[in-house]
Amino acid sequence: MSEERRLFSGLMDEDPLRWRQDELDCALFELSSGPGSFGARREWLVWFGFLLPRAQTLIGDGQQPYFFGRWLHGALTTATFVHCPDPSLPNLPPHVRRDLLDTLARTLFTAQRWNQGRVAANNFFEPLGDSPHHGLYFDGGDALAASCLLVLKYLDAELIDGWLVSALGISDPNWRAAFVVWLAGSSPLIVDGAYPDQLSHSELYPATWQHHHLIHAPASPLTLDDAENSFIDSQRRHAFVSSLRRQLDRSRLGRWREELTASSGPRHGSEYARRQYETAAERVIERYGLS
């Protein structure tokens, strides 16, 4: 980040549709990288509060060519994690945490992205991607990773079990496979308490999102009680892992593999995706201690 002060006057326009994408991208990057370089500043928090609700309207239905929704959603998620590191949000009004969960965290789950219990074709989230190197693969990153981690970071610990029941209850085989890949790739955050900057760009377990590398451990604990200094606090991580162990086991993962094979059939280029799921499932069993 440059020490030279830059103004983003175009973003003062009250109509976000008139914002330039490159200016918004740059502003969000600076908002997310600034505190790590120069410490917290109130003006950045004010700008974050101004941009967040307005920029969310640009994510749209995933069809707009101008603002690429999954990248914008990831950048907004990173800015949120940087400026709201304490899940209790002590310096913001009480309703803000609920608003984050009802808006940014729920973007992936809006009705327009689903069709009869399955992910509808859209550019915002595609659980099954197509790579020129491997062919078909399951994507646990971008919108999926950002949305799930927003929930784990800010949802009350006692509500995590209900959320996970809902997520694992989705019947779309591709969603299930992408979710398992996300679990595998995100295990350092959930099991070990690591920060996102420690995530690797894994081709086998993609679980990163836009600007995630800017989120790193603070130099000192956020609170006097936060001696562990983890990205997701221990109470929420414990609630998630305990719930996962009750709901997911080797047998269920095996049934999902069979349903995945039956739904895809002999589709060309699907061999890598099937191996990817099997490898991710084994990693999830090992890392989360599933039976």
Description:
- With 291 residues, the chain is mostly helical.
- The protein has ten helices and four strands.
- The protein has a two-stranded antiparallel ribbon with strand order 1-2. A two-stranded antiparallel sheet has the order 3-4.
- Strand 1 and strand 2 form a beta hairpin.
- It starts with 20 loop residues before the first helix and ends with a helix.
- The mean pLDDT is 90.
Number of strands: 4
What share of the residues does DSSP label as strand, in percent?
Answer: under 5%
Low-confidence stretches: none
User: Largest sheet, if any?
Assistant: 2 strands, antiparallel
Overall 3D form = globular
Which class do the helix and strand fractions yield? mainly alpha
Key terms for this structure?
mainly alpha, globular, two-stranded antiparallel sheet, 291 residues, 4 strands
What is this structure, in a nutshell?
The protein has 291 residues and is mainly alpha-helical. It has helices at residues 21-38, 42-56, 69-83, 95-102, 143-154, 160-168, 173-190, 234-247, 250-264, 271-288; strands at 114-115, 118-119, 128-131, 135-138. Helices cover 49% and strands 4% of the residues.
SSE blueprint:
Elements: H1 21-38, H2 42-56, H3 69-83, H4 95-102, E1 114-115, E2 118-119, E3 128-131, E4 135-138, H5 143-154, H6 160-168, H7 173-190, H8 234-247, H9 250-264, H10 271-288
Antiparallel strand pairs: 1-2, 3-4
Helix pairs in contact: 1-2, 1-3, 2-3, 3-5, 6-8, 7-9, 7-10, 9-10
